[in-house]
Each structure stands twice: as C-alpha cells, then as structure tokens.
C-alpha cells in the first residue's frame, strides 16, 4: 500500500470514528522514507487524541464519584479504586505508544522548526496526561519537553505563530494544573498574550489572523478563570 493510500485510509478511519485503526494506519506512514508532512502528523494527533480523550474523561468522572460516595462500604470503595487503576493503566499505555513514536522517530527527524516545536509540544501534552494519573516522574519529563519546545519557539517563531501560541496555551495549563505554579502560569500566559497582541495587526493573511486570535482568546479565557480562582479582579 502506497503512502497516499495509507493516509487516505487513516483519514477515512477517523471519519468513521475507528480510532484504533486510524492510529495504526497513521503510524504506518512512518515506514515511508520521507519525514511526515504536517497533515500526516495531524492524522496521528487526531487518532491518539480520540483514543486517550475518553479515558481521561473516565478518570475524571470516576474521581468525582469517588469523592461523592463517602458512605460506601470498604469493599465497594476498593472496587472503584481497582477500576480507576485499570483506567490509569490504559491511559499510560496509550500515551506511551504515542510518546515512543515521538521520541524514537519524530522529534529527531523533524523537517522544520515548526514541526520540531509541534512534536515537542505533543510530547509535553502526553507526559501531562500521564502525570494526571501517575507520578511526578512524568511531570518532570513533561516540563522538560515543554521547556525544550518553548526555547526554540521563542527564538524561531513569531509571537502570533499558531504553533507557538498552541504550545504556550498548553504549557500554561501544565504549569497551573500539574506544576501547581499558578502565579507562574498566569504570568506566562499574560506575557504570551501581550506579545501576540502587539504583533497581531501585522498579520496580513486573514486565515492566520483568525487562527492566532482564536488561540489568544483561549489564553485570555484561562487567564480570566485562573485569576478569578485566586480572587484577583
């Protein structure tokens, strides 16, 4: 099966919501000699996002149930803990599969600066998902990946670059939710937002302007929520 057919079938599997198959087909694209194109990497991202997303939701829902059911018997509480352990193992397995592709192939073979930043940012994201359910080791690796990505993005990419802004958005979430560095998360998000705002009017391409503005809106929304949580007006 040639490259274009593999990519087409991966896209088709995604539209059919067969995400295991989509992930397998998108992974096969790495067997071809040329580096992944951005749309091919998007197939991998979409597939794994739809595999890990329901698992992360299940983890959060069962956490809410665990917090609410304070009168359960020890046996039922143990059953729920065992069930959540199973969900955590599935999250870890899914993340490790994607992280191995990123670490073993994608990051080292990134064809452009934009791709390199996107791959490192995705590494940070999946370490963050593991840190939500596992231990601090994954948080440390996530911080390293985000920092590596940001050190490149802040030098090589414009403040309004969608790749740079998406990285900043997720890095700030990591700082706030995983790193418990709330002040740092707010300060970082505010700095990124200001830098992008100063550069926004220089964008002549309408699509690029819309993309940057959309991510900036998400950044501003997070800033508003986080400062409200701290009682800041």
From TrEMBL:
UniProt cross-references to SUPFAM superfamilies, sorted A to Z: 14-3-3 protein
InterPro entries linked to this entry: 14-3-3 (IPR000308), 14-3-3_dom_sf (IPR036815), 14-3-3_domain (IPR023410)
Annotated site residue numbers, Interaction with phosphoserine on interacting protein: 56, 128
CDD domains registered for this protein in UniProt: 14-3-3
SMART domains assigned: 14_3_3
14-3-3 domain: residues covered: 3-231
Family: Belongs to the 14-3-3 family.
PANTHER family to which the protein is assigned, alphabetical: 14-3-3 PROTEIN (PTHR18860)
The protein's name: 14-3-3 domain-containing protein
Organism of derivation: Saprolegnia parasitica (strain CBS 223.65)
């Amino acid at each position: 099966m040639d490259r274009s057919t593999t990519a087409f079938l991966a896209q088709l599997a995604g539209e059919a919501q067969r995400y295991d198959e989509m992930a397998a087909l998108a992974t096969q694209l790495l067997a071809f000699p040329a580096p992944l194109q951005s749309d091919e990497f998007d197939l991998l991202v979409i597939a794994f996002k739809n595999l890990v997303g329901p698992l992360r939701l299940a983890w959060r829902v069962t956490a809410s149930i665990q917090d609410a059911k304070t009168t359960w018997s020890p046996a039922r509480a143990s059953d729920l803990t065992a069930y959540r352990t199973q969900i955590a193992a599935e999250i870890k397995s899914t993340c490790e599969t994607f992280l191995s592709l990123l670490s073993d192939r994608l990051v080292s073979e990134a064809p452009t600066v934009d791709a390199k930043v996107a791959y490192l940012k995705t590494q940070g994201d999946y370490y963050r998902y593991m840190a939500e359910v596992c231990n601090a080791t994954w948080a440390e690796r996530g911080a390293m990946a985000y920092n590596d990505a940001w050190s490149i993005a802040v030098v090589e990419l414009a403040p309004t670059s969608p790749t740079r802004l998406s990285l900043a958005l997720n890095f700030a979430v990591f700082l706030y939710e995983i790193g418990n560095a709330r002040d740092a998360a707010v300060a970082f998000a505010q700095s990124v937002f200001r830098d992008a705002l100063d550069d926004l009017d220089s964008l002549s391409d309408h699509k690029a302007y819309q993309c940057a503005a959309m991510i900036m809106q998400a950044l501003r929304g997070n800033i508003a929520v986080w400062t409200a949580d701290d009682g800041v007006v």
